Amino acid sequence: MFFIKKDPETYRIIGLVGSFGFTTAGALAGGYFLGTYVDKRYGTAPWFLMIFLFWGAIGSFINFFQVIKKISDENENKSAGREN
Fold first, then answer.
1. What is the DSSP string of the chain?
2. Cβ-based neighbours of 51, under 8 Å, separated by 6 or more
3. Which InterPro entries does the record cross-reference, listed alphabetically (predicted)?
4. Distances (CA, A) of 77 to 7, 57, 71, 81
5. Contacts of 76 (CB under 8 A, 6+ apart)
6. What pLDDT, on a 0 to 100 scale, did the predictor assign at position 46?
7. pLDDT of 35-81, one tens digit each?
8. CA separation, residue 58 to residues 31, 33, 52, 69 (Å)
9. Domain ranges of the chain
10. Which of 17, 41, 46, 52 is surrounded by the most beta carbons within 10 Å?
């Protein structure tokens, strides 16, 4: 990719942000399988499936925002260090 600097920090940030898809897929898959299992065991379909899918989606978004905040804080600390 010729338009991206050959900087390891750039690749690290792209990797962190790119992991959102895997995190979301894993959380939703976990919610699906756990919800389906509980619903089959107790005959409550589709309630636990919907609850666990919702929790998985919320959890993945919380994780994504934590990663973005971490990257933002690191960039602020680096820029503050350069000014001094």
1. -TTS-S-HHHHHHHHHHHHHHHHHHHHHHHHHHHHHHHHHHHT-TTHHHHHHHHHHHHHHHHHHHHHHHHHHHHHHHHHHHHH-
2. 35
3. ATPase_put
4. 18, 30, 10, 6
5. none
6. 94
7. 999 999 999 999 999 999 999 999 999 998 998 898 888 888 877 76
8. 11, 17, 10, 16
9. 41-73
10. 52
Residue 11, token pair as written in the block: 């690749």
In the chain, the amino acid numbered 9 is E
Q: Would you give the distance in Å from CA 7 to the centre of its chain? A: 23
Q: What is the per-residue pLDDT for 84?
A: 45
Contact by Cβ (8 Å): 40, 34: no
For residues 69 and 75, give the distance between their C-alpha atoms in angstroms, rounded to a whole number.
10
Q: What is the mean pLDDT of residues 8-33?
A: 88
